[in-house]
Amino acid sequence: MALAPPTFAAPEQYLESGFLLRSYRPGDGAQVAEAVNSSYAHLKTFMPWATPEQPVELSEQLCRLFRARWLLAEDFTIGIWQPDGSRLLGGCGYHLREGGLDLRNAEIGMWIRADAAGRGLGTAVLRALLRWGFTEWPWLRLSWRCSSANLASRRTAEKGGLQREGVLRSHMIDPGGDRRDTFCYAALRDEWLREDEQRQRRQ
Ligand SMILES: CC(C)(COP(=O)(O)OP(=O)(O)OC[C@H]1O[C@@H](n2cnc3c(N)ncnc32)[C@H](O)[C@@H]1OP(=O)(O)O)[C@@H](O)C(=O)NCCC(=O)NCCS
Q1: How far is CA 156 from CA 61, 105, 162, in A?
Q2: How many structural domains does the chain have?
Q3: What is the CATH number of the domain that holds 109?
Q4: Among 24, 104, 147, 165, which residue is least crowded by beta carbons within 10 Å?
Q5: Which residue range(s) make up the domain with 130?
Q6: How does pLDDT run across 64-121, given as a tens digit for each residue?
Q7: Distance 77 CA to ligand 1 centre (A)
């Protein structure tokens, strides 16, 4: 099989006062299993991958797969860590679901562990992903999709600075088996940079 040479070197990490965003690494599996398993009740409604007891070995395999795909510039799955890196607070990512890297589009996904949710972290991480994505990554368009029933996700998208672009009716099936509409949001680099300049001037 001929592999395209991976010429894109993704930025490795982004630090803010409340959290650190970085690629998963070999050795992160135990932290991922603990965060996901302790958050199952919180995640199961909208996260199809959530299971009640994810074995550490599977989490570790996933971390290695995420790292490999990162290095090959196939997909960018990111852990949300406490600033000192000692505890996993959730996960997010820039996913190539709207074309290849050359199109410079990515879809942001996110989950926050149950005991850290509802305190502003999701909104802060989304804002950081827009800032990091539009200043250090090549993205021109960053999107976000969620179930119309996911009120926390809709509100996070709106508070975080994304624009609602439309609704795909009866588009997917939620993990509970119900057909649902999908709300589509996005931000564009040029618009975000203009708005950021205005934000800076106001400060
Ligand atoms: C969606 C999610 C990432 C948001 O992260 P978070 O840290 O909880 O978000 P924030 O604390 O920044 O809250 C953002 C807004 O959502 C609101 N919100 C949070 N949980 C809510 C809920 N269960 N129902 C309704 N609104 C909710 C908050 O009140 C806040 O709005 P406000 O400031 O106007 O009150 C998190 O709740 C989560 O992990 N959910 C499960 C996984 C998931 O659905 N991921 C998104 C897939 S698209």
Answers
A1: 30, 20, 9
A2: 1
A3: 3.40.630.30
A4: 165
A5: 13-202
A6: 999 999 999 999 999 999 999 999 999 999 999 999 899 999 999 999 999 999 999 9
A7: 20
